[in-house]
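[Meeting: bench + compute handoff]

Bench side (C.D.) handed over the final construct sequence. Compute side (W.E.) agreed to return the predicted structure before the next meeting so the bench team could plan truncations. Sequence as handed over:
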Amino acid sequence: MARIDAFLKLGLAQGCSDVHLAVGMPPMLRMNGDLMPIKFRELSDSELEAYVHEILTTNQRNTFEGGKDLDFSYVTDEGGRFRVNVFRKVTGVGAVFRNIPAEVPTLDQLNMPPVLKDFCDYHQGMVLVTGSTGTGKSTTLAAMIDHLNKTRNLNIISLEEPIEFVHPSKNSQVVQREVGTHVHSFADGVRAAMREDPDVILVGELRDADTIMMAMTAAETGHLVLGTLHTTGAVKTIDRIIDALPGELREQTKAFLSMSLKAVVTQNLVKTVDGRGRKAVLEILVNNRAISKLITSDQTHQIPSQLQTGADTGMQLMDAALLQSIQKKEIDPDDAFRFASDKKKFQRYVTDTGLYAAIDAE
């Protein structure tokens, strides 16, 4: 058993989401959004490097020694599965292990709005799940893939870096490919997938212009494309895609988004009232004629008003979703305040008066 497995076993026993290892610090566990040290000595550079080297393949070790960061999946001897990032910093080696549950959670288990199942019924177009790092985007997409896998007869091709949840084929065939192992890049993976008779293509991250363009092509040519972006709202997502592509493609990109972008889901993980867990709170855009017109006429700043009035089709603003969850006593008002855009609306619910400074600053 690799020595690093002891820390990972402890993290799993504590129910943490991530295990952080860094030189000059004891191992840290992320518990419900907060980092907490475990009772252990500070790790030295040579000690942590030895721990990390035990779990690397020869190719990974050569890549890491060549100065590059590593992203890969790791399975402990006891079957725990983790997404791993290994890197170097000023003081030495660092590593973060994200716990990947053995079972893919369902959309119902995640308490997702019913409209997310409707998104899985589309036969073509693009559905994006967005949010900051660590907000559960991969888990939501995995649940959507699982729903498709159980309810439809499809060829689903997933492109990830690295592979996180493992999907055994059920009613559908699920082909999981890892960037860096099976394909050179996300763009190359989408290009290859389009020759493999896909019905659904999952793109782990729309990180560059080439990947976005290939994903757009796939969505326009009769495939359902699911993807992620590190954006914090529906409007920012649309603007990011338009800005990511060359200026001469601006009108073409707006036309694509107006016609083929089906939905944008933006999520935050907010602490529950008891502080023992976190709940996903979502902003949801469902594309319609009015939103399409706003996109093509460069009036995306007016999209929030459409989200506000589109509840009958499943749309909601982040602030409205946060307020609703506070009123249902599902989330901690102080933590919800951090994610709110119009913080004055939340002032009456805040219990930590130190947060009022943020309201006064607006």
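W.E. noted at the follow-up: The chain has a mean pLDDT of 95. C.D. will use this when planning the next construct.
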